[in-house]
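Action item from last week, closing it out:
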Amino acid sequence: MVKDLVCGMEVDPHVSDWSREIDGATYPFCSERCFAEFNEDPHRYIGGSGGHDHGGGHMGGCCGAGGGAMGYVHLAVMIAFLVLAIIRSL
């Protein structure tokens, strides 16, 4: 896992859908929003001055997971619905 240079979220570089290579280094991102923000001024982020918080000030956070505890609650609810759907289909 590596940090998204824009929001600081941990990202698995092997599964990220968004990445950019600059000077031989590959930078993965958690979302299309962070990828686009990075591409506006890559050296701002490579230099370490950072970007937005993971929450991004909008519903769902930059990656749509909501971040923090709400992200885990959302995941738990989705798993519960999946389990119920599987049980009903038996």
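Closing note: The chain has one domain: 2-65.
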